[in-house]
């Protein structure tokens, strides 16, 4: 009887193992065959290819819903509106090619291998591609150092040299100076009938909807800025729109001069990065009646700042950033108009254009961006 009971005990003990052992073996097999870079890791290492993860915003009615890189709902674009009623608009960016020692390191995106300089030029090229694809008959002007060896042979694109200090340490400061000099020159040459609006942006953005409508839909602003709910840097300098009337350009120049003055006197310690954004925030906050609580609501609003009528546009729509910023953790708005590939997202910008070129579906491309948004890539 004792032996019988002992045998049954061994049998009862072994029954769970019959289920557990095969399960452990199957899990081990899955772990062995799982791709090593299937999801972002926590070490901060950058990846050399796109990595898709969960798309934020699932279940929210006003956010893009995705299954992998396939859009499940429709984005809201204005491209089907009549463009011929809109006055001409030109994009302006600051770009400089630095004289660097020979760079033997290369990265490959798609079927193309790039050196460091070639990568920068490829990003500039994609910047132009998105503008000319999504905003037909829109010109692009590149402000650059006269000493820079920059040549761009593209229809509707011109290089505009402006003297200054384009070193990496002073580039953000120089950008404001170049904007001012460019606007001053155009104000001198402008005729009464010649109204051309300007949108000043970083060169690492993708325009995914027609931005000319902001000048039509908001007819009373002199310049427009993008904002986010960030206490230290609520105003982003990567997007500044200027109305092309004499009054609009004049007041925009005055506003930017004030920003430059504050930048030079208060934030030179941050001249390489962020100084311009800190100066912008200071100028806006210096208006006695300005309520900083407006930054918490992602809705456009107007405010008079130092005699200039400023339109504030939410970054979530007009300056949406994959790696950070307002809106990232709540997904991508269905009416997003600009995607800003700041920081380590430059590869994602090139990959997105390659994907769009092969599919011609802007919503699916946005899903690719959204699903890749929290991954650090190799440049």
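Q: What amino acid sequence fits the structure above?
A:
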């Amino acid at each position: 009887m004792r032996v019988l009971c002992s045998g049954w005990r061994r049998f009862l003990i072994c029954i769970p193992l019959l289920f557990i052992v095969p399960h452990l073996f199957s899990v081990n097999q899955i772990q062995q065959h799982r791709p090593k870079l299937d999801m972002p890791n926590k070490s901060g290492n950058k990846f050399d290819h796109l990595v898709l993860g969960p798309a934020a915003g699932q279940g929210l009615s006003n956010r893009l819903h995705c299954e992998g890189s396939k859009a499940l709902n429709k984005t809201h674009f204005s491209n089907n509106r009549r463009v011929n009623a809109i006055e001409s608009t030109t994009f302006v960016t600051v770009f400089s090619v630095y004289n660097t020692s020979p760079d033997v390191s290369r990265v490959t995106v798609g079927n193309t291998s790039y050196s460091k300089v070639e990568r920068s030029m490829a990003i500039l090229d994609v910047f132009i591609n998105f503008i000319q694809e999504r905003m037909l008959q829109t010109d692009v002007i590149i402000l650059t150092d006269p000493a820079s060896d920059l040549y761009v042979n593209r229809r509707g694109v011109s290089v505009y040299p402006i003297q200054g200090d384009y070193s990496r340490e002073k580039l953000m400061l120089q950008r404001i100076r170049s904007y001012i000099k460019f606007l001053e020159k155009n104000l001198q040459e402008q005729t009464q009938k010649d109204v051309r609006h300007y949108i000043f942006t970083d060169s690492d953005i993708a325009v995914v909807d027609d931005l000319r409508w902001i000048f039509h839909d908001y007819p009373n602003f002199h310049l427009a800025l993008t904002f986010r709910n960030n206490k230290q840097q609520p105003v982003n300098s990567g997007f500044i729109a200027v109305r092309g009337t004499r009054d609009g350009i004049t007041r925009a120049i005055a506003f930017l001069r004030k920003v430059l003055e504050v930048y030079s006197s208060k934030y030179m310690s941050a001249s390489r990065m962020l100084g311009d954004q800190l100066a912008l925030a200071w100028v806006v906050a210096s208006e006695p009646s300005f309520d900083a609580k407006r930054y918490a609501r992602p809705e456009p609003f107007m405010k008079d700042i130092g005699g200039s009528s400023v339109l504030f546009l939410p970054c979530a729509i007009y300056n949406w950033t994959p790696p950070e910023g307002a809106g990232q953790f709540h997904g991508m708005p269905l009416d997003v108009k600009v995607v800003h590939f700041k920081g380590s997202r430059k590869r994602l910008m090139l990959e997105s254009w390659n994907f769009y070129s092969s599919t011609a579906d802007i919503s699916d491309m946005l899903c690719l961006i959204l699903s890749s948004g929290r991954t650090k890539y190799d440049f």
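Q: And what stands out in the fold?
A: The two ends are 74 Å apart (CA to CA).
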